[in-house]
Amino acid sequence: MTKSTDLRAINLFDLEATLAEWGEPRFRAKQIYEWLWAKSVTSFDGMTNVSKELRAKLKENFTFHTLLEDAVQHSNDGTIKTRFLTHDGHRIESVLIPVPSDDRFTVCVSTQVGCSLTCSFCATGRMERKRNLEAYEIVDQVAAVNRQCLLTFGKNLTNIVYMGMGEPLLNYASTMESVERITAAPPLGLGMGARRITISTAGIAKMIRKLADDGYRSNLALSLHASDDTKRNEIMPINESNNLKTLMEALEYFYQLTHNRISYEYIAFENFNDGPEDAKKLIQLCRRKFPVRVNIIEYNPIDGAPFTKSGEERLNAFAAAVAEAGITVTVRRSRGKDIDAACGQLANK
Ligand code: SF4
Prior knowledge:
The protein is an alpha/beta fold.
């Protein structure tokens, strides 16, 4: 362990061992862990029941990096986008999506600085991937937005979606560690329900299987956006190495092992993926050996992308065709588009 090790990058067992070397009682490690993960303290000095001497020793031996709030934007529809600054000067974004009428307050978190996957409809995909976020940087987004939610709406967050900047399954270790810290009961974590979390992936079959093998307990969303390989290759280059057949098999495997909820995210692009043939193919993809629900999302145009959003009539007809096949469909109207906080728009503007 060196001074460059972040206090939140070590596990409880190692912290206990370090404290034992310093002659501290074992319970101190849990006390410190509680400050770090359950109480979301933002500095060594915030750990008020830890002696000054021990805090000084921690400071000498560890770093303690936190995200700094860099900018906050409020949308007319209540959505709040927060841009955070990392300790090494990168910017990432999180979005609070409040639906007070349903008592639903969702945070959308980022997992990488930029993204390497270059989906053609997504602003983040045009930013180079600079680095993966650490688990604590993902948890910090949740803790900070939860404080924002309490201040603004008097409510705690109810849902967490990993749908912000980056591909969570390409930052697997930190993503899983963050889920662990968010769901662990205090003093070891924030104590939020595993069923309240959804990881969204552009579709990396090998990692979907790994999620199942590793006993993942939360929900999974596949960013489908096209229901045949030709169209999907066109908008999501990751499909060339992870085609629909491979992905469907991985999802079947995932469901067999976990029985966790699976959904397809489907952005509707006018005259590209919103016709009757597309609906038929989508229905086929829903008739697999796992139950699935479909979220059809209104497209939020970004500069220079060759798409327009589906017209109201086409969108409704498409959703109706899928629903008539007995599939649970929700049409998600865009939220936060006036502040570039909607799906596919996050780009640190
Ligand atoms: S949609 Fe997701 S995976 Fe694709 S480029 Fe954007 S952030 Fe990356």
